[in-house]
Write a structure and sequence with these properties.
Layout (H helix, E strand, L loop, with lengths): L6 E4 L1 H4 L1 H4 L5 H14 L3 E6 L19 H8 L7 E7 L5 H4 L10 E6 L4 H13 L3 E6 L7 H12 L5 E5 L7 H15 L5 E5 L7 H10 L4 E4 L13 H8 L7 H16 L8 H8 L5 H8 L5 H9 L2
Parallel strand pairs: 1-2, 1-8, 2-3, 3-4, 4-5, 5-6, 6-7, 7-8
Length: 315
């Protein structure tokens, strides 16, 4: 299997933080960090660096804001075998104030998350962050709701920036492998000639997250997102242990992630934290809609799926 240029990024603290308001204990974060290193994961994302002016720090755990000091407190001396990532949302971060020079930070990569209509703002953020010495990538969210023309225009604009990669983000879990293949080819066609890679961030609403990640990889995507036991908003993401098992060999090793699932992820599930596939999430994926209605239905134990589909069909 050709894994040249592949970069696996673990987003458990960031996407998983959306289901527990980022209240992860330090012991778990250390265990996740060690498991990812031992498994050969290339990057680990330590949550968001969100604006403390917009979000109340009393309402969220520290990985909503992810300071350099919090990262170093947990990991101690940084292990050179794995890089560290943080995500910043367009319009939800004070990036000029809160992102200092790379030489003073354990963070290697900032991923800029944007919707299709805020690409200019994303480009401004990318330029500033790159000027501070960091790697940058861009995640175009809710891409399943965008036209090919919108996507192409965004990609041409981003191709002129310092980003290393641009991600296909299936925010609604609406994509099937055939659509993923088409999008990956479009991204690759525009980005590859200027030396930039395509990434894939999949959600599991229709149980296609793993399949879509493999389809993207086989069509040329190099940056692949995963989360431990699929922990992520709503239906969750591509499972770390599934992708690493698929890539298992000299560079990647699944056993540390299997132990993490046994020791940490299953007890977390049993404690009452809810994520993962169910029929309500399938329906929002099927209708290419934000999972907010499925999140509410899951919280309320609403299993009136026919009525949910009728409601979604008229949105």
């Amino acid at each position: 299997m050709n894994i040249e240029g592949i970069r696996v990024l673990d987003a458990t603290l960031r996407d998983g933080g959306l289901v527990n308001d980022f209240f992860f204990g330090d012991e778990f974060v250390r265990a996740l960090y060690k498991a990812n290193i031992d498994a050969g994961v290339d990057y680990m994302e330590f949550g968001y660096r969100a604006s403390r002016k917009q979000f109340d720090p009393k309402s969220f755990g520290k990985w909503k804001f992810t300071s350099d000091e919090d990262i170093l407190k947990v990991i101690g001396e940084k292990d050179p075998r794995m890089k560290i990532s943080v995500m910043v949302d367009v319009g939800r971060t004070d990036f000029k104030e809160d992102i200092g020079p790379k030489k003073n930070s354990p963070v290697d990569l900032f991923r800029v998350a944007t919707y299709i209509d805020t690409i200019p703002e994303a480009i401004e953020m990318i330029g500033h962050i790159n000027s501070m010495g960091y790697e940058t990538t861009c995640n175009i969210m809710a891409v399943s709701r965008c036209t090919d023309e919108q996507i192409a225009n965004a990609l041409y604009a981003l191709a002129a920036t310092p980003v290393s990669a641009v991600y296909i983000v299936d925010s609604y879990g609406a994509l099937y492998p055939k659509q993923t293949r088409k999008l990956t080819r479009l991204y690759h066609k525009i980005l590859s000639p200027v030396g930039k890679d395509t990434g894939m961030h999949a959600h599991n609403n229709q149980q296609c997250a793993f399949a879509n990640t493999l389809e993207a990889k086989d069509t040329g995507a190099k940056w692949l997102d995963v989360t431990a036991f699929g922990m992520g908003r709503g239906a969750g993401n591509c499972h770390s242990e599934a992708l690493i098992a698929y890539l298992n060999g000299k560079r990647y090793h699944v056993e540390p992630l299997l132990k993490l699932v046994t020791d940490w992820m299953l007890p977390m599930k049993e404690s009452g934290i809810v994520w993962g596939y169910n029929t309500s999430y399938m329906l929002t994926g099927l209708t290419n809609q934000h999972p907010r209605t499925a999140i509410a239905a899951t919280k309320n134990n609403d299993t009136q799926y026919t009525e949910q589909l009728k409601f979604l069909s008229y949105q």
